[in-house]
């Protein structure tokens, strides 16, 4: 607890001593850093999804047609709900 409190106090003092321009610049840097992190996370999720599709398509070649379709529908449902949650839409 003590370490976090000290960090917070240091940040508050640092912010109090900054000029408006310095604060604006720091906020912009923080915003850009967060945007970069979001982009990297998104790219990682897309890459993982591509790998899953590649693995599932390789495995699905071995399955009968009906079972393959059932698996595709089952995989689509969680993805749709996650996309809806992310965009704020509901079914």
Automatic annotation (TrEMBL):
Compositional bias of kind Basic and acidic residues: 20-31, 67-91
Region (Disordered): 1-38, 53-91
Regions of compositional bias (Polar residues) in chain numbering: 8-18
Protein name stated in the entry: Uncharacterized protein
Organism expressing this protein natively: Onchocerca ochengi (Filarial nematode worm)
């Amino acid at each position: 607890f003590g370490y976090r409190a000290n960090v917070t106090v240091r940040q508050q003092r640092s912010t109090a001593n900054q000029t408006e321009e310095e604060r604006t610049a720091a906020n912009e840097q923080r915003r850009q850093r967060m945007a970069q992190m979001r982009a990297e996370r998104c790219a990682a999720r897309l890459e993982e999804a591509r790998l899953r599709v590649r693995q599932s398509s390789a495995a699905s070649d071995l399955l009968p047609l009906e079972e393959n379709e059932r698996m595709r529908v089952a995989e689509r449902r969680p993805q749709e709900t996650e996309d809806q949650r992310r965009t704020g839409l509901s079914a």
